[in-house]
Predict the structure.
Amino acid sequence: MAVGIFDSGLGGLTVLDAVARRLPEVPLVYFGDNAHAPYGVRTADDIYALTTAGVERLFAAGCDLVILACNTASAAALRRMQESWVPRDKRVLGVFVPLIEALTERQWGDNSPPREVAIKHVALFATPATVASRAFQRELAFRAIGVDVEAQACGGVVDAIEDGDLILAEALVRSHVDALRRKMPAPDAAVLGCTHYPLMEEVFQDALGQDVKVFSQADLVAESLADYLSRRPQMIGPGTVSQFLTTGNPAQVSNRATQFLRRKIAFEAA
Ligand code: DGL
């Protein structure tokens, strides 16, 4: 009965935490590819190879359904995986769509033509690979018209978070928000398009100002997963235990994870 949650490192823990609160009875297997983080500066082929290897490991742990709790993998690898790699009896879902449905005021599965929405100016903060993929703009264009998106590639933030250097992460977030504001002085909404960034959400909100609505993915993805499993309960796989797997150093990753989630997390070697 396990669902897999994949990320390049620690960021997906923000999604895991929200899913664990929303679906406490579902065992969750987390895979953090910490040895290869950050993905945001890698090529699409490299991200595809690493993501498929990690998802394969989650299938082996008894997960039939895997959430890519990583925007970079969702943007650079998910479509290719779904088209030619995912076995028929498994599912791999990304984290973009729930966020864009919230932004465009849509219910799940509403495939009606794009329409005008309340939000007009959106600041997107994401990794360089996610920004380069333009996946966010593409998914948005399927659902909304007249929305102006300004994307800011936030180099360095994921590395600083993975290294536990939150002072550097804060300084980088503030400088990326300044850079964004030079291009779009008055966004109505900001999207934290990387699952590491909710760990710095208060800094983003403070730098952007209280008038800007900040969308972050964890709760939206948890809600959308709960909805999906209520329609497809058979996709809860045969695994029965929750696990935290990492390609990095388990002791070091456990310490950082415990610090971020403020509860004891014990990773084991993937
Ligand atoms: N947390 C991931 C994301 O949502 C990946 C960050 C990275 O490894 O660069 O994009």
Summary: The chain has two domains: 2-94+218-269, 97-215. The chain has twelve helices and twelve strands. The first strand starts at residue 2 and ends at 7.
